[in-house]
Write a structure and sequence with these properties.
The chain has 510 residues and is of the alpha/beta class. The chain has 3 domains: 230 residues, Orthogonal Bundle (MetI-like fold); 158 residues, D-Maltodextrin-Binding Protein, domain 2, CATH 3.40.190; 93 residues, D-Maltodextrin-Binding Protein, domain 2 (3-Layer(aba) Sandwich), CATH 3.40.190. It contains 22 helices and 10 strands. The strands form 3 sheets. A 5-stranded mixed sheet has the order 7-6-8-5-9. The chain has a 3-stranded antiparallel sheet with strand order 3-10-4, with helices on both faces. Strands 1-2 form a two-stranded parallel sheet. Helix 11 links the parallel strand 1 and strand 2. The longest helix is centred in the first third of the chain and has 35 residues. The two termini are 29 Å apart. About 1% of the residues have low confidence.
Length: 510
């Protein structure tokens, strides 16, 4: 594992360097905003103590909200991506800054302030020449703790489509690449340790009244903050592609990017692995934060359009295309050819013990079994509740887990039954038996590109590039590509390029 991690770290700097820089930008922006706001609020409540219970109480409440939940709460207001990450991290970072500023000022001996007032110091002079300098070691201590926490917590931001080293961790989990997950974790730990080291030095310098290191650190922080806005410039000329947190979506999004750049002269940018899948990507598409993403017909029919029936494929696809255009201003361009249906897998040991072959066979034994699935399966209209009602399941317990962890969980016996996709790479090498959907609960899940109409109108050349995906991939080919990434540890970009080259749609790997 250590050898594989080292090989990934040193062999893929083209992948990690932009993530390190983006992680720095997100963390620095949150730290600087929280420092400024925390200092202001800390000073305010130290001057007007009647406000302190309310300000500290409010920030304490924010601090107790689980990070994933806070990201989710902010998405309707700030969308997905770096802005939401900075907003959430700033809210978490406020408490240590406010509390330490308030505590540092409040603990100054009254005799000191009385002496300063007796010598004619006004309130402003008292604050800036006496209180803040004396409280500064405590304030810097709070800043130090806050900075380390923020750098570490920024890794979770990839769940909502933000950048940073969390992308490497999340992608490693999703593609069963433990070395990549460890590499991303190690880099975040090193960044947090470096932040702690630098601010520790600044804290010691302040105690010795040597302010040069603090001035250098402040200048560097302001530079990073400015860089965040310079690099976030105009993205109107870039086609923004979103993907769900699944290996095949990583591969497909790379194919879309390559075909667009090969055939149109436009640049494309991918945001991979957005947590919540359609639930977060679709609203972001409506706001114009993304131009396109790969979507499944079954998800569109049940989850987005809220249909409860299961018509023939031809009728379903025709209705989806019409309603997406009328309701959302989106076009469905091309179906790729493969059908990634939901399925159920049971540990082979249990399947053989109870003679399980169909979904109906599973029902009598479900009270003694544990069911595992990714988070959104438990919320879908065609997910866990509907499936259980339809087949009469009453599982002993359920386990929410990331897509990339399901197969290891069932192989190790931590769960007994999992939902799966028919093109999953790990099916052939997992200890499961796929059951037959004998009463046809799950509809087909053909996949195609959903594109904003205004994007196609602005860039009409996109249409021909996207149509190259039409009928391009079979079930077996998609499963083989997923296996190449998850089991053979190829990158999704390399896998996508090799496939397009084999089909004559790409001259060489970009």
């Amino acid at each position: 594992m250590i050898k594989e991690t080292a090989e990934i770290l040193f062999g893929r700097w083209d992948f990690f360097l932009p993530l390190i820089y983006e992680h720095l930008e997100i963390s620095a922006a949150a730290i600087i905003i929280a420092t400024a706001a925390g200092l202001f609020l800390g000073v305010l409540i130290s001057q007007y103590k009647i406000l302190s219970p309310y300000v500290l109480g409010a920030t304490n409440i924010i601090y107790t909200i689980p990070s994933i939940a806070l990201f989710g709460f902010l998405i309707p207001f700030t969308g997905v991506g770096n802005l939401t990450a900075v907003a959430a991290l700033t809210l978490y970072a406020l408490l240590p800054m406010i509390r330490n500023t308030y505590t540092g000022i409040a603990n100054i001996p009254p005799a000191v302030t009385e002496a300063a007032e007796g010598m004619g110091s006004g309130k402003i002079q008292l604050l800036f020449r006496i209180k803040l300098p004396l409280a500064m070691p405590v304030i810097i201590s709070g800043l130090r703790n806050m900075a380390v926490m923020t750098v570490a917590l920024a890794g979770i931001a990839s769940f909502i489509g933000a950048g940073g080293l969390g992308v490497a961790i999340y992608r490693g989990i999703t593609t069963n690449n433990a070395a990549m997950t460890l590499a991303g974790s190690v880099l975040i730990a090193l960044m947090a340790f470096t932040a702690d080291l630098l601010l520790g030095a600044a804290e010691k310098a302040i105690k010795k009244k040597k302010y040069l290191p603090l001035k250098i650190a402040s200048a560097a922080a302001v530079f990073l903050f400015a860089a965040l806005f310079f690099t976030a410039g105009d993205r109107d000329g870039v086609i923004k592609i979103a993907s769900k947190p699944m290996t095949e979506q990583f591969i497909i999004s790379e194919m879309l990017k390559m075909l667009i750049e090969e055939n149109t002269g436009l640049k494309a940018e991918i945001t991979k692995g957005i947590g919540g899948g359609t639930g977060n990507i679709h609203p972001a598409m409506l706001k114009g934060e993304f131009d396109m993403y790969p979507e499944y017909t079954g998800t569109a029919w049940k989850f987005v359009l809220k249909h409860s029936d299961n018509p023939p494929d031809e009728m379903m696809i025709k209705t989806i295309k019409e309603e997406y255009e009328d309701k959302f201003g989106f076009r469905w361009v091309s179906l790729y050819g493969f059908n990634n249906r939901f399925g159920l897998g049971v540990r082979k040991e249990l399947a053989e013990k109870y003679g399980l072959k169909t979904y109906s066979d599973l029902a009598p034994y479900s009270p003694g079994l544990v069911f595992g699935a990714e988070y959104d399966f438990f919320e879908r209209d065609d997910g866990y509740s509907a499936l259980s009602s339809y087949y009469g399941y009453n599982f002993k317990s359920t386990a929410d887990m990331d897509i990339g962890l399901k197969y290891s969980a069932v192989n190790s016996g931590k769960v007994d039954v999992i939902n799966l996709f028919t093109t999953d790479a790990m099916i052939p090498v997992s200890d499961i038996r796929i059951l037959e959907d004998d009463r046809n609960f799950f509809e087909n899940y053909h996949i195609g590109t959903v594109v904003r109409k205004d994007t196609l109108e602005k860039h009409p050349e996109l249409l021909k590039a996207l149509e190259l995906m039409d009928g391009l991939i079979s079930d077996e080919e998609m499963a083989a590509m997923n296996y190449a990434v998850e089991a053979e540890k190829k990158s999704d970009r390399e896998t996508a390029a090799e496939f397009l080259i084999s089909k004559g749609l790409l001259k060489e790997a970009p």
